Amino acid sequence: RLINSPKLYSTFLLWLLSELFEQLPEVGDPDKPKLVFFFDEAHLLFDDTPSALLQKIEQVVRLIRSKGVGVFFVTQNPRDLPESVLAQLGNRFQHALRAYTPAERKGVRAAADSFRPNPAFDTEEVITTLGVGEALVSTLDTKGAPSVVQHTVVRPPASRLGPAEDAERKKVINESPIAGKYEGIVDRQSAYEILEAKEAKAEKEAERLAKEEEKAAKELAKKKARAKKTRSSRSRRMSPLQKAGNQAARSAAREFTRYILRGILGSMKRR
User: Biased-composition ranges for Basic residues (predicted)?
Assistant: First the structure.
């Protein structure tokens, strides 16, 4: 979405470079920049860009070199960039340009004229005959002036797509300045894992207590049910004869008690 909104893209670029310019310290003119930005399809940055914004971008691009920041604009044709921005670019890498129309030939001529001429070849002619991996290159010399353009072959990457072999991996490890320090695999327990274990333990303990309480409640209910059942079964097991015998025994006990009391009271009265 950002690249499809040129004005927003340009504003973002200006903000980013301005923040870096304000925050980074002055480093002068280092051999290599500390930070490099490559803006692909750079012509999108300058489509319908207001002149005030364009001037500000030009100013920041020119001044940010002293902060150790490099900015590269990548585009198919140098005509896609404003002249004021092109004038601030110290390093140029020009790949092949094809010219089939008068306007395209004019663009090739303009691109060739932007380089410092090399007596060894015709820059305008070479631009149209460059092959794959070839480029015209011009950089700044020690005095800050553009160097003579050179016809170069771009060195392909030395890397290889695919997994590294065991011997290659072992060689890189042995040549590392920290070789021998981190060979042992240590799986330390993180704070997240400790807290997670505590939470799991607390949940298990809560589940255990809940199960014990539930079990105790069931045992108590069973005991109450057994006691109630025992009392009711005892009352149900007593036969009518037993009930009559119990009643007769209670009546006899009452009569015997009254008889004893009368005897005691009568003897007391006679005295």
Answer: 223-237
Structural domain boundaries in the chain: 6-155, 199-235, 238-271
Closest listed residue to residue 90, CA positions, set 132, 42, 48, 29:
29
pLDDT of residue 63: 82
Tokens of residue 208, six digits:
């255990």
Q: Quick one: which of 231, 250, 85, 155 has its CA closest to 223?
A: 231
Average pLDDT on 218-224 reads 85
Question: Quick check: helix, strand or coil at residue 73?
Answer: strand
Q: What is the pLDDT of residue 149?
A: 92
Q: What is the C-alpha radius of gyration for the chain, rounded to an integer number of angstroms?
A: 51
| Helix/strand/coil for 52 | helix
In this prediction, residues 135-149 reach a mean pLDDT of 86
CA atoms within 13 A on the CB side of 51: 0
Tokens 């900015």: give the residue. 71
Contact 123, 112 (CB under 8 A): yes
Mean pLDDT of 229-246: 62
Identify the CA nearest to 127 among candidates 141, 155, 156, 106. Answer: 106
Start-to-end C-alpha separation, the chain: 130
- Other CB atoms within 10 Å distance of the CB of residue 52: 8
Three-state secondary structure call for residue 179: coil
Comparing 185 with 121, the larger pLDDT belongs to 121
Query: Residue 50: left (phi > 0), alpha (psi -120 to 50), or beta?
Result: beta
What residues pair up with 69 in beta bridges, in sequence order? 35
DSSP letter, residue 146: B
Q: Are 124 and 116 in contact (CB under 8 A)?
A: no
- Which tokens belong to 200? 């799991």
